[in-house]
Design a protein that fits this description.
By secondary structure, the chain is α/β, with parallel strands linked by helices. The protein has ten helices and five strands; from the N terminus they run αααααβββαβαβααα. The longest helix is centred in the last third of the chain and has 23 residues.
């Protein structure tokens, strides 16, 4: 056995994969600015600052007083607790994974938008199926509450599943933002009763729900911005007409230049053909 006295520092440091500078480094005691003597003249000048001058940072105070460097100003203001509070960083939110829908009633997206009817703001809650692009639930009105968000959700479930019976199994996932309507207890409870799994987007992450964002953009460009409404009834009728046209006659590039009914019909034929081919191979 080799004694430790016979091992050189070079060999030991090499075996430990440690550099000499790190091994011999001795940190110097940090200087505490509070223990250093303060300049009484500077302290007096700083305490004479009043009014809006108190919102200045140390660099602006340096410019104001002129005869002191910014490091000295900063040290004195820090001891006197005159520095400005640091900006709080926003909580980071993980973005939802990007995925392409493979069929209807797998993932929905919901959101709300504003429409000016010439006198006041109207609110439109809408839910869109990300696969066939169809707006399946909506609520247009003068209120912007969780109650209206629930109405749009119930409308979507009733259209796609035929009833509102509580279900223990998750039938579909719904992506929404973190607006007060969607994070409310009542909305969460109703979604759970209906068997809808909620997915919340990150803050300032509109790309987490691109389909409903695109739907609202088309609605604004193709209907709202082309008309000057004079009343709530006028704006509401415009929405109903646009929704009917969008769901029955509008050609969608994302659906291979087909209308929604044409896409559903051709999709059904493809599924039947695929099933028959599978049966033929299995036989």
């Amino acid at each position: 056995m080799v004694s430790k006295e016979n091992i050189s520092a070079h060999v030991a440091l090499k075996a430990l994969d440690l550099s000499k500078s790190a091994y011999y480094y001795k940190p110097s005691p940090a200087s505490d600015s509070r223990k250093r003597k303060l300049d009484n003249t500077l302290v007096h000048k700083l305490k004479k600052l009043t009014g809006y001058e108190l919102v200045y940072g140390y660099r602006k105070v340096t410019t104001l007083l002129k005869q002191y460097n910014h490091k000295k100003i900063y040290r004195h203001m820090k001891v006197l607790k005159m520095t400005q509070p640091k900006k709080l960083k926003k909580k980071k939110h993980t973005r939802l994974p990007i995925s392409c829908p493979t069929g209807s009633n797998i993932r929905w997206e919901g959101d709300l938008t504003y429409v000016f009817d010439g006198k006041r703001l109207n609110y439109l809650f809408a839910i869109v199926d990300t696969f066939d692009k169809e707006p399946i639930g909506d609520c247009y009105g003068l209120r912007c509450r969780a109650k209206e968000a629930i109405v749009s959700l119930e409308d979507a479930v009733r259209l796609r599943f035929g009833n509102l019976d509580p279900s223990a199994n998750i039938r579909v996932s719904l992506r929404v933002d973190q607006g007060s309507q969607y994070i409310s207890k009542s909305f969460k409870a109703r979604a759970k009763e209906l068997g809808v799994h909620l997915e919340y987007c990150g803050i300032n992450c509109p790309d987490d729900k691109p389909y409903v964002e695109s739907f609202f953009a088309r609605y604004k460009c193709e209907e709202v911005y082309r008309n000057e409404y004079s009343s709530f009834t006028d704006a509401f009728l415009g929405w109903l007409q646009y929704k009917h046209w969008y769901k029955t006659e509008r050609i969608h590039q994302g659906l291979r230049w087909q209308t929604i009914p044409e896409f559903k019909h051709n999709r059904g034929l493809q599924q039947i053909a695929g099933y028959l081919e599978y049966q033929k191979i299995g036989a």
